[in-house]
Structures are given as C-alpha cells and as structure tokens.
C-alpha cells in the first residue's frame, strides 16, 4: 500500500464529493448532501476559499480526505475546525485516517492555531475510540444548533 497525503486540488473535487456522499450514507442521511459541484469547487478553489483539504491517494486514486476551515474562538483565538475526516470504506482500519489526521494536526500547528475541534456522532464508536487515542476531549454538554436558508 503506497498511500500518500497531499494538499487537495480542484480536480480532486469529484472524488471528494463521492467520499462526502459515502459519509452521508454511513451517517444514515443519504439525501442530505445538497451542495452543487460548482459551489463545492468555488468555495474551495475560487477567489476566496473558505475550506482547505488534504487527500489520501493510493495509486492516483483519492481514497480519503480531511476537509477543514478556520474557526475563531473569542476565548482561544484561531482554531482549525475539522469538518470531515472520511476514508473510503475498503481502506478503513489501515491507518489512513491516522495519516490524514496527523497531517491536519501538523498543519494547524504550523499555522499557529490554538487547537482543533470537530464533531463525532455519539453512536460512531470506532471514531470515538480513534479520537480518544489522541487524548481528544469529547464534550457532551453542547447542543448543535443550525439555521437553514
């Protein structure tokens, strides 16, 4: 297995979108992905990108991704928000997630961010155990809030 981690490119967007849809199915929300490819590409590779990503590649095929953006905390300053860490199902359990998360952590440190944050579903035991192996703090106290337009 010759998997490499690199910065995502615009031409990776179709493979990244396939991973996002795979995650939606895994999270029991198969119809929840409504972003268009045009919006996805523009928001990551347009004039004012709002997200960045690393991809895991195996023989030129994107098999995983870490997509993130900058979040500002009035208490902590700039923090990296990990929106998605997705590994194509056949590659799970092979260390690809660790490679991507380690690269994302290194990037946050290189940028001088005060830390990272993300969410995990309370029933996703393998992911919770994986994050706990990093001594990540899991906080069940906060309630997610969203407003759709």
- How would you sum up the global shape? globular
Encode the helix/strand succession as letters: EHHEEEHEH
Question: What topology, given as strand order, has the largest sheet?
Answer: 1-2-3-4-5
Which segments are poorly predicted (pLDDT under 50) over 5 or more consecutive residues?
none
Total discrete domains: 1
As a whole number of angstroms, the C-alpha radius of gyration is: 15 Å
- The number of E-state strands comes to 5
User: Can you say what the CATH homologous superfamily is?
Assistant: Gcn5-related N-acetyltransferase (GNAT)
Mean pLDDT: 95
What is the CATH architecture annotation? Answer: 3-Layer(aba) Sandwich
What does the largest sheet look like?
Answer: 5 strands, mixed
Output the CATH topology. Aminopeptidase
N-C termini distance: 43 Å
Strand percentage, roughly?
25-35%
Oligomer: single chain
Structural class: alpha+beta
Pfam family, one: Acetyltransf_1
GO molecular function, one term: N-acetyltransferase activity
Protein name: N-acetyltransferase domain-containing protein
Domain N-acetyltransferase: 3-149
Report on the structure:
- The chain has 149 residues and is α+β, with helices and mostly antiparallel strands.
- It has a single domain, classed as 3-Layer(aba) Sandwich (Aminopeptidase), CATH 3.40.630.30.
- It has 4 helices and 5 strands.
- It has helices at residues 13-26, 37-45, 96-110, 125-132, and strands spanning 3-7, 52-58, 61-73, 77-87, 116-117.
- Strands 1-2-3-4-5 form a 5-stranded mixed beta sheet.
- Helix 3 links the parallel strand 4 (77-87) and strand 5 (116-117).
- The longest helix is centred in the last third of the chain and has 15 residues, at 96-110.
- The protein is globular.
- The model has no long low-confidence stretch (mean pLDDT 95).
């Amino acid at each position: 297995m010759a998997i490499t981690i690199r910065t995502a490119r615009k031409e990776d967007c179709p493979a990244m979108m396939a991973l996002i849809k795979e995650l939606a199915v895994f999270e029991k929300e198969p119809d929840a992905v409504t972003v268009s490819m045009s919006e996805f590409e523009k928001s990551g590779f347009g004039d004012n990108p709002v997200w960045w990503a690393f991809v895991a590649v195996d023989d030129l095929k994107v098999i995983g991704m870490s997509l993130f953006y900058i979040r500002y905390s009035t208490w902590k300053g700039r923090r990296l928000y990990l929106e998605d860490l997705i590994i194509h199902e056949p590659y799970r359990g092979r260390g690809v997630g660790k490679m991507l998360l380690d690269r994302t952590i290194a990037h946050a440190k290189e940028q001088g961010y005060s830390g990272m944050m993300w969410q995990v579903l309370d029933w996703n035991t393998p992911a919770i155990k994986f994050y706990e192996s990093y001594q990540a703090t899991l906080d069940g106290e906060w309630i997610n809030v969203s407003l759709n337009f």
